[in-house]
Amino acid sequence: MHSLASHQYDSGRLLSTEKRERLDSQLSEFAERTGWNVRLVTSYGPGSRPDDNSIRAAWGPLGKRSVVIEYDATTPSLINLPYLGDDVVLVLKRPWWFEFKGRFGNLFYVREEGEQTAILNSAAVLMDCLGRPDGCAVVPGLPEEQYYFTLITSVAGGLVAGFVSKLEPQGFVQRRWVWLLLFSPLWASLFVNFGLGPVVSRTDDKLPVVGNCLGFALGAAAPYLVQVLRPPPLKDSQ
Fold it and tell me: What is the reported pLDDT for 37?
């Protein structure tokens, strides 16, 4: 039986003794400092999960500032959320929790990083966001696959901007730059909303921002570079 002093119920034995003790110390210090009670349950299949009576006996009633995260190594998503206190949901909205599960609970992340790392990293991010005065709108950190997606959309936005800027004036459009304005909802959305937005909201690192800006510039310049680098047409022999 786990005591009330413990913030973990490691029935799945997913953590080593050293890491379990270190994490429990961090959770205890976090609870004393902030008043947020983060409880972790690990299991390995339905038979190893503690029942509700065991959890209540170990931790007592859960309040508005409590959250229970369950890590089950046998489910498609490592992370389950059996209990979110009312105050917890006010600070970290439902979309945040969906992203949290998708980030640290997906099979690819767990397979690459390992179960222990997934548990420790997710607990650290949860404590970080709960410890902020206004919480977090998104999960901090920029996964590699998500950055590549933002880079692709930045380049796509640049390509759209570059191609429409080469359209010939016709009808009510008397200048080429007017085409750029007319199509700005498309290329600006690709670049700003899907290219820069997810980056600046998740990390303070300037390198991904610079990379996406260069990608946009390269995409915008591509139509002109193609024209410049295109070989001249062969002259008909006399």
Answer: 93
In whole angstroms, what is the distance from residue 17 CA to residue 13 CA? 9
SS3 142: coil
CA 68 – CA 62 distance, rounded (Å): 9
Element containing residue 58 per DSSP (H, E)? helix 52-59
Helix/strand/coil for 70: strand
pLDDT < 50 regions, the chain:
1-4, 238
84: CB partners within 8 A, 6+ apart: 67, 68, 97
pLDDT at 3: 46
**CA pair distance 187, 93, nearest whole angstrom:** 30
Q: Please state the three-class secondary structure of 10-48 as a single string.
A: ECCCCCCHHHHHHHHHHHHHHHHHHCCEEEEEEECCHHH
- Alpha carbon separation from 223 to 149, 165, 173, 218 (Å, rounded): 22, 9, 20, 10
